[in-house]
Structures are given as structure tokens and as C-alpha cells.
């Protein structure tokens, strides 16, 4: 046998004798939170100062394969303390980024190392979680995309982040009063300028018959978007990152509350030379949010049927053995709430309003200081009946675990992290508590969260 020396080294005992060096930890990529000036308004207006991750708007996109690891060193280059929450990720509680609950806020000049694994594929996002009603409204957010192990059959994808800004046209700057009592007690901070990916009129190119995956994300403080497709045919394939069991043909407008996401696969049906649109329906008006200029060159004229995205594997809630709990949302303007507990003491609504608090859950003005809404054992199913006893819509978000909406017939509906309830509506949600830690549950209309609509759940 003619064995070369090299082969002996590779195949023989010599390999095992080599010293084993621990994989060197490269430093985490820096994620700076910085103030930056962007040309958001049309030409002729000045630049607008926003706060952003990485100095771009929207913030730097983070993209990882399913099961991959995200490591970022948040460096606070702002003059206000901040922290970063990874919205929709089934995360280790210590990495959840909630100032005052899972970590201290990161003061100006300081940093914090986030390091976590992403178990589920889908469309997620990250955003500031200290004074969110101000910091998210100033632009501190970005997309967190977790790619499926096997890419779905689309030609390409677009991440489309919608936002609603309140801007003073005279100065081109964000209106400064983030805690305006009227916004807190009514529908939240609604803006006067809508952007997609930081632009008022986003224009993209597409080919006739091209198949695209649109990852739609609503980053606004309070705006609810109704979106319609024009010049394309669409199928809804995921909500809040989680695949639907079956793709649904888009016929009605897609409703996206604050923080919600929708993944839509679309086939461009407009002719070459035409323009296809994602349209925002606002009452009787419709505005193009994204324009796709259509050219020739798409390959196939008939595509295969849309397949569901591969499911993320989750423990299912056990409804027959669930623990029931009610969460009644109260207060706000025209809400009729007279008094509520704050920090354990009963206070009149007048006193609460003076303290900038207008909403309550089960008679208590929320916060992280008080006791949790529930302490749940690992493996328990919690069934929460959410009652919207106010005259405003609310978008309730649970950290750390997705929940199922319960359909009127009692079966499990969409698997989401944010559920929207219009005035007077009641909805049950249920989830298997399988992620230990302290998890926030709050309205994602961020002005509401700041003025009472916040509680938390402890899973042990
Ligand atoms: Cu998207 Cu508590 O947040
Ligand atoms: Cu709300």
C-alpha cells in the first residue's frame, strides 16, 4: 500500500493529538442607536432628524437562517437611555430587551450585548423598548428576518415596513410632544405622513408574471393599515411570522395593526408598462404605498399553486385543561372609568390623568412594578379572554410566546404575537406556557402602553 505521509497525518492518530483550540469568539457586530438626518419629506423640504439603528431608515436589516444565532452589541449613541426588544422571537428572557423588567436601560454611551438563537422562521422585527412611545416613533426599529431552511418558490422578496410619522411641515421635524395627553387617552399618536421603508413613494421594479414574497410590517405607534393589492394576485401565507396552515387568497384588504406582520406571496398580473401597487385604503381614499413598475421578462405565465410555508414546531395549547383568565381593558376618553388602582392604591381618574395614566387592565393601571397578571407553571395552558371595554381599538402583544386566537367555534385560529380588538370586541387567546421568564403583555399602540395598558405574566 502506498500511503503518503500527508494521508497518515490526516487519517491517523496524529489528528487527535493536535491541540484543540476553542473556536475564537469574534466580537459581536455593533448595532448603534444614533440620531441621523434623513430626507424623508419630498424635495423642497428639509431633512428630518430621526433616531435609528445603524444610521439608516429603516434600521439595519438583520437576516439569519432558522436556528441561527443573533449577536449584536447595542451601543447607545443617543442622549436617552434605551434597550432593544426582539419582537415575536421565542427568546431567552434575559435577552428580551425590556427596560425595567428583563434588563436595566442602557444609558447614553453604554452598551449591551444581545446574544440569542432564533427558533422560528418568519418575519419579525426589533425595536426600542424604553420609552417606546417616543423611541419607536422616532424610528428606532428594523426588520429581523429568519429564513426558512428551504426557501419558498418565489423569484424574490421585499421587506416593506410601513410607518406613520407626525411631522411639523414648517420645520420638517417630528412633532416633539410624544406624551401629549390627547394622544395617550384617545387613539394614540397618529401621524400625518406615511412612509414605506422610510420613503413616501416607494417605487420598485417587477416583471410580468414574477412571483414575489412581500413581508409587510407595521412599525407605527398607532396607525391601523388596510392594504389592498392592485395589478397583482396575492395569497396570505403567514401572520406575525407564523405560517398559515393553508395559504389564503387575498380578497379583502389585509388589516395590519401596530406591530403586526403579514407575509403575502403575489404574482404580478399587470402588463408590461403598467404599474402594480400595494394600496393603503384610508376611508374613502386610497394611496399607493408601494409602486411596482412592470416590465417584460418574467419567465412563466402560469405558476404552480402556492404551497404553505413549512410550519414552525410549537407546543400546542391544551384547551380542555386550560386555565381561564379575563383581561378587561378599560378607560381612555369616553371610557367611563372613574377610578383604578395604581401601585396598589385606589386613585381617581383625575389623579391618574394628572400622572399621565388613562387606561387600566382589570381595574389596575398597568406597569411592571405591580404584581404579574398571572403566574403560570411551565406546561400550563393559559386561556385569556380579552374584553375591549373601551371605544378604541387595541393591539395586544405578548412577549416570548405566540398564542392562538380562538375562533368563535372554539377551534384554534391564527398563531400570532399581536391580536387586534376593535371597540367592544371580546377575543379569547390561548398559549402553552413553555418559555420561562417574565413576559410583558401590553397594547402595541405605544401611547396606550405608556399610559396604563401594560401588564406581565410570569412563567416558572
Ligand atoms: Cu413590540 Cu413590548 O413590544
Ligand atoms: Cu391600546
Strand coverage percent = over 45%
Please identify which CATH superfamily of the largest domain we are dealing with.
Cupredoxins -  blue copper proteins
- Structural class call reads mainly beta
Top CATH class of the largest domain: Mainly Beta
Unreliable stretches, pLDDT < 50, 5 or more residues?
1-19
Largest sheet: 6 strands, mixed
Helical content band: under 10%
Total strands: the figure is 34
What is the number of helical segments per DSSP (H or I, 4+ residues)?
Answer: 6
Protein architecture, described:
The chain has helices at residues 5-11, 14-17, 132-135, 181-185, 349-354, 446-450; strands at 29-38, 48-53, 59-65, 69-76, 84-87, 111-117, 122-128, 141-147, 156-165, 167-168, 173-174, 193-196, 202-207, 211-218, 225-230, 232-239, 242-249, 254-256, 261-268, 275-282, 285-295, 323-331, 339-342, 345-348, 359-361, 374-376, 381-388, 394-398, 403-406, 412-416, 418-421, 426-432, 437-443, 454-459. The protein has 460 residues and is mainly beta. It has three domains: 20-151, Immunoglobulin-like (Sandwich); 157-295, Sandwich (Immunoglobulin-like), CATH 2.60.40.420; 319-459, Immunoglobulin-like (Sandwich). A six-stranded mixed β-sheet has the order 12-9-14-19-16-17, with no helix packed on it. It has a six-stranded mixed β-sheet with strand order 25-22-27-32-29-30, with no helix packed on it. The protein has a five-stranded mixed β-sheet with strand order 13-21-20-15-18, with no helix packed on it. A hairpin with a 5-residue loop joins β29 (403-406) and β30. It is globular and about 65 Å long. Bound molecules: CU-O-CU linkage and copper (II) ion. The site of copper (II) ion has 5 residues, from loops.
